[in-house]
Structures are given as C-alpha cells and as structure tokens.
Amino acid sequence: MSAPGAAALAPPARPPANAFLRFLWRLFRTKPLGAFGAVIFVLFLFCGVFADLLAPYGFNQISPANRLKPPSGQFLFGTDNLGRDMLSRCLYGAQLSVIIGFCAAALGTAISILIGVVTGYIGGKTDLVAQRFVDAWMSFPDLIILIVVVSVVGPGMPQIIVILGLFFGIGGSRIIRGAVVSVREHMYVHAAQSVGASTLRILWRHVLPNVMPPVIVLFTTRVGAAILAESGLSFLGFGVPPPAPTWGGMLSGSGRTFMYQAPWLALMPGLCLTIVVYAINVFGDALRDLLDPRMRGSR
Amino acid sequence: MGGHERIGRARGRGQDPAAGPALMQAYIVRRLLALVPTLLFASLIVFSVVRLIPGDVIDLMLSQNDISADKKSREQLEAALGLDQPMLVQYGKWVSGILSRGDFGVSLWQNTPVAEQLAQRLPVTFQLGLFALIVALTVAIPIGVYSAIRQDTSGDYVARSISLLMLAVPSFWLGTMVMVFPSIWWGWSPEVKFVPFRENPGQSVAQMAVPAVILGFALSAVTMRMTRTMMLEVLRQDYIRTAWAKGLDERLVVLRHALKNALIPVVTLIGLQVPILIGGAVIMEQIFVIPGMGLLLLDAVSQRDYPIITGVFMVVGLAVMLINLAVDLSYGFLDPKVRYR
What is the pLDDT of residue B338? Predict the structure, then answer.
C-alpha cells in the first residue's frame, strides 16, 4: 500500500500501463487534495494494522506515577487519569476504528448491493414495497434507532459492526438502486436479455460491473461514516465498552471527567477522528469525481 | 421522503390554474393518509423491540427500592404497571389510547402521562433544531452562492476546504472543546442551567446559541456544497445568459433568476438532513444539559421506561414525516411548474 507515495515522488513520464497505477496517476495529477486524503487514509490504515508494533506502551498499561501528565517527549500525547499513554491509546483506537469502519462499510455495501440490485432490476411490486420500507426506515433518526437497538443487543464491537452495517445497507440501497435503474435500460442489457441470458447471469456479468463506480464511492464514504457513528455511540456510552480505547469512548469517560485539568485527554482523540474522517471525505470526493461524475455534488 | 414520484411537472399549458388549490388539498390529504400505515408499522416494531431490552424494568425498580425480589411483590408491581397482560393486548391498548385521546401511556417511573413529558420536551428540541437550521442557512446559502459565482478563485477554495473540514469535525468533540478551552483560557463556560423560552426569551436564545451553532455547522457544510453545485449548474443555462445579455444587474440575475431555481435540490437536501439534525440534537442536549427529547430518551433507555421510549420514537418519526411533507409542498412555491397530483 505504499504505491501512492511512490507515485507522487517519482511520477513516470507517461501514464503507467497497469490500470490501478494509471488510476493513481490520474488521482495525483488532477486531484491533489484527494490524493492528500488518500495518503492520510493509507497512513491511518498502517497505524491501525501495526498498532501493536507502533504503540510505545500497552493501551491499558496503568502507571500511577504518571497520572495526567501533559504531552512531553516521553508521552507525546500526554497521559490519562490512570497514567495510560494517550498516544498508544490513540493508536489502538485507530486499530478499532479500522476494524469497525471497514467491516461495517463492507457489510453495509453488500446489503446495499443486494437490495439495490434486486429492487432496481426487478422493479414492480417488490421495488415498491422495498422503497416504502426504506422510506419508513429513513424517517427515523439514525442515532435514535441505534441507541434503542444497542440497548437491546448490548454494547460490543460485533454488535456495533452488524448494526451499523445493516443501517448503512438500508440507507445506501437507494444510491445503488438508482444506478441499477439507469444501467437496466442500456442496450447491452437488452441484448443479453434477448439472447436468453438468465437473470442471475445478467445481474452478475452486466449490471454489477457497471454499478461498481458508485459502489466504490459508497464504500469509501461509509468507512468514514461508520467511524464517526461508532465514536458518537461510544461517546454516549452505547458503543464498544471500556477499557477498549475507542476514540469516542476516550472523549466521554475520563476525557470528560478530567477535561479541565487535562484538556489533551479530550483534544487528542477528537483530532485523530477529525483528521481521519476529513481524509476519507476528500478522498471519497476525488474518487466520486473520477469514477462517477454523475454523482458530483450529491452526498 | 415518500411521494416524490407523485409530484410531476405539468407539461404544456393544459392544466386549469384554478384547479391548483383543490389539487393541492387532495394531495395533502392523500399524503397524510399514507402516513398512517407507515406509522402503524413503525409503532408495532418499536413497541416490540423496546420490550426486548435486557434488564427488566421490574428488577430495576425492586432493586432501587431495596425490596427483595420475591415472586409476590414482582407480580403486584407487574400488575400495577399493566405489564402482566399479553403484549398484543398492551399494544392494542396503547394504540387505541393514542388514537382516541392522544394518550401515550404513563411513565413507569415518574407516574406522569408520557404525553405531558413529550409536550414539555418537544418544543425544546424543536427550538434547538430550528436555531441550528437558521444558523446553517444564513451561513451556507450566501457562501454557496459566492463560491459558485467566483468559481475557482481563492475564496471558492477556502470556502470549499472549510466546508469539508466542518463535515469531518464530530459535533460531540466540538461541543466538548467549546466547554473546555474558553473555560481554561478566559474562564468562560456556557450556561448549563436551562431557561425555557417562554420564561425568558432573550436568555434562552443566548443559551441555545452555542449548541445551535455547533449543530448547524455540519448541516451548513452539506447545504453549502449543494447550493454551490446547483448554482453552477443553473448559471450555465441559456436564460441566465439572456438575463446577462439584457443588461440586468448582477444581483438580480444571481438572486432572482439563478438562486430561486437552484434552491429546490437544496430544500430536498434539508428535508433529508432533518433526521441527522435530530440525532445531533440528542448529543448536544447531552453535552449542554438541555432538557429536550434527546435527554428524555437517554434517561428512558437507561431506566427501561418503555412508554417514554416508544413515545419519543413515534413523535420524532411523525415530526420528520411532516417536515418532509412540508418540504414537498415548498416545491410548488419555489417552482410554479410543479403540480400536485
């Protein structure tokens, strides 16, 4: 995953042959802000994956002698009320955010594709019923449903991933459905129908590849949305329970109790969150412009 | 959100203009009727899901009152709260209560009617949401228009970058920062003792200002982006070129001709953002201790106060649906070509 950095440092004279590299080349050439977002995003992934190696201390390593120490050379982000190193906790927080963001976005996108492709292609009564259901679902604020559902299933990472995935899946099905409806009317689909290709084959070979651009964009933006949603839930005490170092959780527990004595407790996790979500947003925007110009400006 | 497909643009001039109001009334009635099955369906789900929350309200009450949870006191309490009946019977009673006398049941803990609590809390959240919306629009629309008519200038870039940043800043973090840093630097902190609007409007507005600005932040970012995109699209239209060619004043071209036509998708977007706004209000109420629907819900969830949870749910859902109906109706005002069928 070091490819983006390499491409920026040594830009080849002409677009490379490989399709992926060619895409990166275009991203860096035409969308510098998006490329910047991509670099931060990759860095964040790196921190998340290698948190165990990068973190100088354990995320729950208590050291009473070093309580509430401000940021210094020894503790770059300071320490919390139990003397735990905030930098390590933020790095492990990145790990949790990577896991939750990616799993929830993957699950959500899969559900969106399933609902969107089926309702968009088949249409008719199925579509109508499904659309009414999505309408009803969307008139209730996410956070309020999430709070109630989490209190039913109990807080915890697997639950949060499944709930957020389900959530994003139903909401995002609209976008996929829209794309499918426009693809459905294309010549090549009619041609496949007239030579007697089965519905499944048409969906798999013709419809799905052609709705990939919005799918990729949806997935990217959902990673950011899932991270933000999880931290919001953790902040309210409905997310992954402590001592797991989620960014939202750090902001609510000791972060709020000691925020006047040790403002870095609340500052650092929030900064991480803002930077990562910002990077994902600008990267997602650039992707949207490059892959799917029709969706420009909508979000 | 529902019902967009029923709004069509009239083609040609065949339609009788006098039929407008009558058609519109019929449209409103039909839309309101369409809400009934949705709300009934939602209510059934909410009613049953809420009862699945682990940790029985009876256990919670008995343990708080230091009563040993023997079988007899359990049954007495269940009977007193009406929780001993089959769930379908409970649901039937609840729905008929709402429909016949607007009775949402009685809070299990405070023993006061839920409707009374909702009536107390709803205006507070409504006030917060409305202020946030006003903040968002007064910031977003002028900047969005400016960004579009000065496309690709440095001002445009600054506005766009800031809006992207505002989308990424979590409101609960921003809220916390506003509590912390002004207090450390200048010893200033937002007032947390709530003042109802009716008692002291001025103080109430001042108190809500900080949470409303934070809540309006993210909304203004989305709105600004949409305004800019739509303005850019409209500014390329032929009738705008005609307006310029006639020698019209810039302000007239931009505001009267372009902005009004660019606003429809912006209004749609605001309708879609209402649920998100309400979700944000829950967080703001928690941080700034504002006794609105959000705080009511959070307390009710931790106390397993089923009637309040279901009540909040239904009222919020109804509010969102009505706001979206209002959004759909506003299209007719913004674009006279829109007809309600």
Answer: 67
The helix (H) or strand (E) run that includes residue A42 is helix A32-49
Q: Which of A228, A248, A299 sits opposite B222 (nearest CB)?
A: A299
DSSP B232-292: HHHHTSHHHHHHHHTT--HHIIIIIIIIHHHHHHHHHHHHHHHHHHHHHHHHHHHHTT--S
Q: How many CB atoms lie within 10 A of CB A210?
A: 17
- What's the CA gap between B96 and B32, in Å, rounded? 19
Strand partners, A218: none
Alpha carbon dihedral A167, A173, A175, A180, in 10-degree steps, equals: 170
Answer whether A123's CB lies under 8 Å from B257's CB: no
Cα gap A184→B59, rounded to integer Å: 56
Inter-chain CB proximity A281 and B168 less than 8 Å:
yes
Q: A240-298 pLDDT, tens per residue? A: 877 778 888 888 776 677 777 777 777 888 888 888 888 888 888 888 777 765 554 44
Phi and psi, residue B113, nearest 5°: -60, 140
Chain B within 8 Å of A152 (Cβ-Cβ)? Answer: yes
- Contact partners, residue A191, CB within 8 Å, separation at least 6: none
Check whether A131 has a pLDDT greater than 70.
Answer: yes
Res A106: pLDDT:
92
Answer whether A151 touches B (CB < 8 Å).
yes
Q: What is the mean pLDDT of residues A57-61?
A: 72
- Minimal Cα distance from B54: which residue of A? A152
- Residue holding tokens 């050291």? A63
Residue A41, pLDDT > 90, answer no
User: Which residues, other chains included, contact B117 with Cβ-Cβ below 8 Å and sequence gap of 6+?
Assistant: B107, B110, B296, B308, B311
Mean pLDDT for A52-57 is 74
B173–A251 C-beta distance less than 8 A: yes
pLDDT of residue A109: 92
Distance (Å, whole) CA A20 – CA A85 = 39
Please list the ranges in chain B whose pLDDT falls under 50: 1-15, 17
Cβ of A232 within 8 Å of Cβ of B181? The answer is: no
**Chain A hits for B278, Cβ within 8 Å:** 141, 143-144
